[in-house]
Amino acid sequence: MLEKSPLHGLMVMVSLALAFPLACGGTGENGTGGDVSASGGKAGLGGEPASGGASLEGTGGAAEVPFAPTCKPIFTECTGLCGPVTDPCTGLQLECGGCADGLACDVDTHVCVEPKIDCEDLGAECGRIRNTCGVRLDCGDCEAGEECDPDTNKCVSCTNTTCSELGFECGPAWLGCGPRATLTDCGSCETGEVCNVAFHRCEPATAGGCVPRSKTAGCSGANAECGFISNGCGGVLDCGNCPLGESCATGGVANRCGPLESPFQCDVEGRSCGTVASDCGGALLDCGSCDSPDVCNDNGVCGSPCAPTSPSEAGNADCGSWPDGCDGTIQKTCTAGSVCKGDGTCCPQKSCGADFTNQCGTALSDGCGGVTNCNCSGSDVCQALEAGTAGACCKKLTSTSPAYTGKCGTALSDGCGGTFNIGCGGGKACTTAVPGATGTCCSLPSCGGVGTACGATLTNACGTVTCNTSSCGSGNACSAMTCCALPTRSPANYCGTLTNSCGSRNFSCSTSQACVASACCDLPARSPSNFCGTKTNSCGSKAYSCSSGQVCLNEACCAKRTCGGYYAGKCGVALDDGCGGTLSCGCSGTGNTCSTATSGQAGTCSCPALTCADYDGQCGSFSNGCGGTLSCTCADHGLPDHMTCGGGSQSGICGCTPLSCGGRCGIVDNGCGGTVNCGAC
Description:
- 6% of the residues lie in helices and 27% in strands.
- It contains six helices and 54 strands.
- The strands form 25 sheets. The chain has a four-stranded antiparallel sheet with strand order 26-25-28-27, with no helix packed on it.
């Protein structure tokens, strides 16, 4: 499932080679269709001898091979498997088909599983990874101080990789640690050199006489078919785009065109054309197109056009599904509310609202060989005796029902075989405690307030209440089982403890005050409003700190500049944060790069948009490389009118449409390298 690095692939292949004499036929990780293949015609993996040499015969000291391992097949049949499977031992290729609804074929294990669609399902925190259906996902970057482990797609502590270890010589570069916007300054170039910021390499400067390679010579000399390469003098060359149906570096080789990666599900189901609904949800998958004169048949295979036919039994039936002779189906459906029976007739189903009015039950016959469930509305209870039998809906009694208005009690009947309780509010009790019997709510004795009882048990006709000592209320206390008033604050700025016959009470100062000689006094106020540090007056000292996003600089809070605020629309490394520190601001958006690589200098983000000239000879709608699109015609390439889009039957390519006679006579040029006979004048 993971995107493996080239080094990882090499290590797996070496491991297989070392382990082979002990476990011939073992595939290792991803050995049967993953990113790293254990097959490929090597000795011992295709039915050939694994020893790699002829046996030694004869006597007289001639050595004899003591062990010649044989290759043991792993996959011999499709039982329990799905999709295309190749046995690494025999080379046998199996087509094991797709999976049942709700399942998808795992690209690595070849087993039908519940699809893991997104990064969360796969347990991936970062990096690139393939989901169950083979779709490549970008699971993002790690936080500061962490890097992405390519084998587990988990964020781990950074290994402190340096610029030199990655071959970077200059400019701001991402070393794999933290978010991609976290850049490290890899240094400057020597005099007479310039930093190629696209590749972080020091190259000769044009000011020193360096002549940039031309697009034709540079791309051809580097055997680059697409993408960008260095021009040798600190700049880049655009080597163009790949033809339709191919993409750049698809096979893992930089600047080389390769075929587009086919969706794995297309291979699983044996489809080479058309579209299919993804087992992992989302948009339809494009399995490709066919070359003329072949057409894409319903089974997703290119071939001769097939004319669907309707079997005779379809004409006599109201509904059903029949093969059309072209690997497709002909379907007749019933109207809403009806189902198709096995004899090809439509049967109107019974419904709860129309056929089971005021009835309820489970597994009720729908009249067409099926069942339906009918529920009661709201909190009503169904009194059906068993499944398949319709019953009546019983409306439950509640506390608002006339029989229970103004009543209270426990385990009261709801009229439908159940019970419920009706309680009284605070300070009240029910006149009955017998389950199932109703009573009325009455008031219990009250506790609290100066002069009332506390810590005592009070009884009246309604019941008994125990008054606790905290029932006297704020500012009061319980003394000798009677609520009394504690001392009040006097004077108004008093701080400390006051005592009277009821008890003691403590009075404190506010957070902006201090208690000095039993009186609250005001601590020094913050002045000016952005002051930071400690102020002192006759009352005492108070420290003032800065809010989040600010730092204390010379006893004043300084608001640090941010990328989204002060540097909005700007970019650069080691930019002044306005408070004695620095910050780095990167670019967001497709294709955007920073106009400067000088430390401490702010630049702007821009994207060098592609033009139709970059799509040489192609026509249609293309990406401009900056998140937008551009529309290219043959005229945009400076071609004459008879060069049209799709001319010569090449879709998306400017081709030549032969000229007609147009009033000419004789054998004349058709504008496309041929001639046309326009007859006599």
